[in-house]
Amino acid sequence: MVWMIGLVVAIAAALFGGALLRGPAVLAASFGLILWLHKRNFDRTNAYGSETYKGFGDMMANKTLEGVLSLVAWIGAIAGFVLCYPYFALIVRG
């Protein structure tokens, strides 16, 4: 649940911060979401390497949720890199 707090802070910073804060905020939130998804997958894997579920519906719900969140996280990471353009422009102008 810590990633949710980070996501809310990153969204608030992206909306109310300056142009230089949007890119790193979106990038940090996206990477946090990606790490949380991988941790969730790791916690579900048992000692033998197979994933454990309570039932078929639980498996389908988890796979759907993780697929959608993974897509959102990767699109956010790409958008974060694009929004970091002002940093790169400042460095080049130097």
Describe the overall structure:
This protein is mainly alpha-helical. It has one domain (2-93). It is built from 4 helices and no strands. The protein has helices at residues 2-16, 19-44, 56-83, 85-93. The mean pLDDT is 83.
Secondary structure: elements and pairs:
Layout: H1 2-16, H2 19-44, H3 56-83, H4 85-93
Helix pairs in contact: 1-2, 2-3
Q: Strand fraction band?
A: under 5%
Intertermini distance: 40 Å
Determine the fraction of residues in helical runs and give it as a percent range.
Answer: over 70%
| Backbone structural class | mainly alpha
Note the main sheet.
none
Count the domains: 1
Mean pLDDT: 83
Query: What is the helix/strand order?
Result: HHHH
Q: Would you report the number of β strands? A: 0
The parts where pLDDT drops under 50 for at least 5 residues are none
Overall outline? elongated
Number of helices: 4
Radius of gyration: 17 Å
Multimeric state: single chain
Features:
94 residues, mainly alpha, 0% strand, elongated
